Amino acid sequence: MPTSWAIRKQALREERSFADVAEEHLDDVYRYLLYMTGNPHLAEDLAAETFERALRRWRRFDPSRGAARTWLCQLARGAALDHFRSDRRRRKREGIYASDVPEIDEPVFGEGLSPALDRAVQSLSAAEREVVGLRVVLELDGDTTAKVLGIRPSAVSTRLSRALQKLEERMVSDVRG
Amino acid sequence: MSEASYLVELREAAPRAPETLRELVRDLSVAQPRRQRRIRPALVGAIAIAVAIAVGAAVIGGLSGSSDETRGVSPVAGAAKTRKLLVPAAKAPQDIPQFATGLTSKSRLQRQDVSMRLRVKDLSGATQSAVRTTRQLGGFVAGADYSTGSKEGNSRLALRVPVANLQQAIASFTNLGTILSQHISVADLQTGLDRLDARIAAARRKGHDHGADRLERRRDALIREGTYARVSLQLTTAKPAAQHSAPGRFGRFWDTTSNILGKELIAMLYVLVLAGPFILLAALLVFAERTRRRRADERLLEEAA
Fold first, then answer.
1. Could you tell me the residue range of the domain that residue A119 belongs to?
2. Same domain flag for A5 and A87
């Protein structure tokens, strides 16, 4: 088990450029945002916003405190939450209660994904999709996911378990229906 | 469909970022800044607090140190001057009589009390030597208490030494062993004597012989009191609890450092006691705000499609 000092030394040795980090984690950030929003266009905009934020804050990024991917996911979450907040304010202001999710015929969560699975994922809430995206698609471990979400690892397990249960139920009902 | 298969499907079908986004991020990276070593705010705060405590402790230490120095000799009611000297073992014994010399006056009648405590090797020899010296100097032994045990022996001598020979007596006693403590007290009797003389003369003039005789007896007693100094000499063979030796450079450095650290600790405790409730309140507020924000975010995500 590496000590915190060893991790710090390793992080300083492996000091990398922003371009390298952005290139390596671009797909992960996009996928995470896609799962959060369920909207490819919005995910693309938010990913661009995330990397702009990351570039502005790159001087303050401390690799010894966490991996770059975790840091980028935290920034992406912040960008998504900001979007949801402003969207909710806009909806309240305009008296709109309907969702703005566009009708897309192609699978949203990846090419080749079965329509039933895609619809099931789409039917989950953003919070549920978020944990599925982090734990299943990005394959983050429980502790890192908890760090991104700002909750305890046990809460991550509970949330994931519920989300997957719901996902299965939706798929089964979709197949039967 | 098994659970594992749909999870695998989700993972394998995970989309790649669009090329437009990739190019945008690439363009962003062109103007990338160099990452600077970050100074943690917590570290800066800790250093600032440590410096503040150190400065506070130094100020407190400086103030208390200076007040200790000014204490010195405190005037005692009347004409008496009293000072207790705690003499380190290594200090030269001949320093002590010089202090007494400064307090005494040959032209005035004074009552002098000296209390000395010495550690000696040979209790019997030292006791006999003290008695012999006292007698040689025209004094006498008013009382003695001598006891020896398996581990230590003690001897207490109440001596009366002519004031004129007191300095010589003290010098001799200090040579008996190591001084543990010394107390010299000098009280002026001359004023009282002058007053008695005046009253006796007045009584004689008025023919009050009986009253004058009574006053003369008091005068004689006062003169006797001023003629012989009371010396309380305690001799012991007891070993000191801890061997004190003059500290070296490292010893002095360690003493100073531990002293400063102790004061810093006290200052830190003060700060903690005073600021503790506020820090706790601030921490609770931060915790509550974080919890509120997290719950608001969770609700927002639940509501979001």
1. 108-177
2. yes
Bridge partners, B179 (sequence order): B118
Residue ending a domain, choose from A65, A85, A102: A102
Cα–Cα distances (Å) from B274 to A135, B20, B193, B261, B267, in that order, read 46, 58, 59, 20, 11
List average pLDDT for each run of 10 residues in chain B, which is 305 residues long.
Answer: 73 88 84 61 83 74 53 40 42 47 72 89 89 91 85 87 88 88 86 88 87 88 87 85 70 88 89 91 94 88 76
Asked if residue A137 and residue A93 are part of one domain, the reply reads no
Contact call for A117 and B7, based on CB within 8 A? no
pLDDT value for A46: 94
Whether residues A112 and A172 share a domain: the answer is yes
Is there a single domain that holds both residue A37 and residue A88?
yes
Tokens of B186: 């000098």
CB pairs under 8 A between A and B: 136
Judged by CB atoms closer than 8 Å, whether chains meet at B29 and A18 is answered as yes
Can you give the pTM of this predicted structure? 0.52
DSSP state of A141: -
The CATH number that applies at residue A146 is 1.10.10.10
Residues B291, B297, B301: CA angle, nearest 5 degrees? 145
Asked whether residue A97 falls in the same domain as residue A156, the answer is no
Element (H, E) at A40: helix A40-57
Residues A85 and A142 in one domain: no
Of the three residues A83, A102, A121, the one that is the final residue of a domain is A102
Tokens of A140: 């983050």
In this structure, what token pair is assigned to residue B170?
């003290």
User: pLDDT, tens digit, for every residue of B79-88?
Assistant: 344 444 444 4
CA distance A176 to A11: 51
Closest CA to B297 of A162, A78, A75, A43: A78
A18 chain-B contacts, CB cut-off 8 A: 29, 32-33, 35
Q: From the centroid of its chain, how far is CA A139?
A: 11
Q: How many domains does chain A have?
A: 2
User: Rounded to whole angstroms, how far apart are CA atoms B137 and B121?
Assistant: 24
pLDDT digits (tens, 9 = 90+) for A89-142: 888 887 665 555 555 567 778 777 888 888 889 888 889 999 999 999 999 999
Between the alpha carbon of residue A98 and those of residues A92, B193, B284, the distances in Å are 11, 114, 38
Q: Is A96 on the interface with B (CB under 8 A)?
A: no
Q: How far is B276 from chain A (nearest CA, A)?
A: 27
* A136 interfaces chain B, CB cutoff of 8 Å: yes
Does ipTM exceed 0.90? no
Residue B71 confidence (pLDDT):
44
